[in-house]
Amino acid sequence: MPYLDRRGRTCGFLDIEEKERSGKFLRRYLLLDKAAGLLEYYMDNPLNLPDGTAPVCQINLSYIQQVFDARKQRPKIEFCFAILANSRHYFMQANDENDMDGWVDSINNASKITVPKKNIQRVTKQDEDMERTPCPGGYRAEIVGGMVVKTPIEMSDSDSDAENGKSRVSPSTRKKLALGLKPVKTGFCVKQGAVVKNWKRRYFVLDHEGLSYYKSNTDTDPIKMISLLDILHVKSYSGDLPRDNLFEVITTNRTFLVQADSPEEMEAWIKAITDTVNSFRKECPIQRKGSIPESRRRTRHHSPDSRQTLPRHLRGTQV
């Protein structure tokens, strides 16, 4: 869902087709500044970029002619909507249904455009009916807008999907799925480095083994996996860094600072990690360090003369 930053601007991440009709959507950070009359997007959150970085694109709100649900025009792009401005269509992909509705409403309100709700509701109803209809080809798991989404497919759809270059589940994630280790939560976040305190966007996967993060959602091996055994506490950040939606993953060796895309995402990550860690602790109780197992205490023997052993320099002498 889009959220308001400290300056009252509506912002959040979306996938945008920068080159019209290219079919290639790139992750970008949108800023809707109603006071300035501008809609602009950046390569990343401006807080993560050098001061004075110019936006990739800037749209004057007074030039926007229409904002509409574009899933009919782009049937293979989920949660797709479009902005018509300056005789060009800007196609954008939201993270989910609520995210799409939030952006459409925000842009409409800022540009004084009204769009009948019936069209959006009608398409939404059709999507819900399709989800309820069993699909003989099963479902395809994909990474869409930073989330794992199951899409009904027919058996003959695999070749066409590969041609369109859609993201797939990584081999390591697929192996975990085969073993029944389904991810609890996945998505993109921004993480602070350990040595160099810079901020980089990473793809996070939380499962019942730990919290892993990758360079992208197509990588096969994680940069790092934080074991659930090492996670002590997860909470929202209360320090002095001027960053929104920041939370801490406190472990035995290090505190990880992670920035979510929105306040709702931050709360969702905190809850998901906390619940998974608590569940893990209940299923696998950890023995306190330094304690001796009962089995070892019972089998531990002392030799009869162990308490009467003489010092080395007295051995062999007669008393």
TrEMBL record:
Basic residues: bias regions: 310-319
SUPFAM superfamilies the record matches: PH domain-like
Record-level Gene Ontology MF annotations: phosphatidylinositol-3,4-bisphosphate binding; phospholipid binding
PH domain sequence ranges: 7-112, 182-278
Top-level lineage group: Eukaryota
Region Disordered, residue ranges: 287-319
Coiled coil location: none
PANTHER family the record matches: PROTEIN OPY1, TANDEM PH DOMAIN CONTAINING PROTEIN
Protein name (database record): Pleckstrin homology domain-containing family A member 1-like isoform X1
